[in-house]
Specification:
This protein is an alpha+beta fold. The protein is 17% helix and 36% strand. Strand 7 and strand 8 form a beta hairpin. It has two helices and nine strands, in the order E-E-E-E-E-E-E-E-E-H-H.
Length: 148
C-alpha cells in the first residue's frame, strides 16, 4: 500500500516548535500545511510540533500535537517506548503515519486518503514491517532526488 501524499519537514534552527516543508510528493492535501505570513520565512510552508498541555476533560489525551497556524490541531500523537519516533494520527478523514529522524530534525508525514478509521491498523502493519518495502521506496526516491 502506497501513501497518497508524503510531506517531509525539517526543523527550523531558530524556532523551537516549527518545521518547514522541504519536500512534497503525491497528492496535495487541502488546508495542509500552513503558510508563514511573516519574515524571515514568509511564503514558506510549515507545521508546528509540540508537547500537549492542559488536556480538556472528556477528550482523548495525547502527549504531542501537530499544528497549523493559530494553533489549529492537525492531529494528536502518542509515542511508545517501542517506537519513540513513530506514531499515527488522522486528519480530515485521512490516516497519517508520522516518523521522525533519529535526531528529531526531520519529520515525514504520510497521508492515506479516506483511511482515518484504519490509521492504527496501518501503523501496526508498518511497525510489523509489512508496509516497509513501499515506505522504504519513498525514502529512497527522496534521497535520489536530493543527490541528483
Amino acid at each position: 500500500m502506497r501513501p497518497d501524499g508524503v510531506y517531509v519537514f525539517e526543523k527550523c534552527p531558530d524556532r523551537r516548535t516549527r518545521y518547514k516543508l522541504i519536500e512534497h510528493r503525491g497528492e496535495d492535501i487541502p488546508g495542509f500545511p500552513a503558510m508563514w505570513k511573516r519574515r524571515p520565512y514568509k511564503g514558506l510552508f510549515y507545521i508546528g510540533f509540540r508537547g500537549t498541555v492542559n488536556h480538556k476533560p472528556g477528550h482523548r489525551q495525547f502527549s504531542h500535537t501537530i499544528e497549523l497556524d493559530k494553533g489549529r490541531t492537525v492531529t494528536g500523537l502518542n509515542f511508545t517506548p517501542e517506537y519513540p519516533r513513530r506514531a499515527f494520527g488522522d486528519y480530515a478523514g485521512d490516516g497519517l503515519l508520522i516518523e521522525f529522524s533519529d535526531s528529531w530534525e526531520r519529520l515525514t508525514i504520510r497521508f492515506f486518503r479516506g483511511m482515518k478509521e484504519t490509521a492504527q491498523s496501518l501503523f501496526q502493519l508498518w511497525v510489523a514491517r509489512e508496509l516497509s518495502e513501499t515506505l522504504a521506496v519513498d525514502v529512497l526516491l527522496l534521497d535520489q532526488k536530493k543527490a541528483g
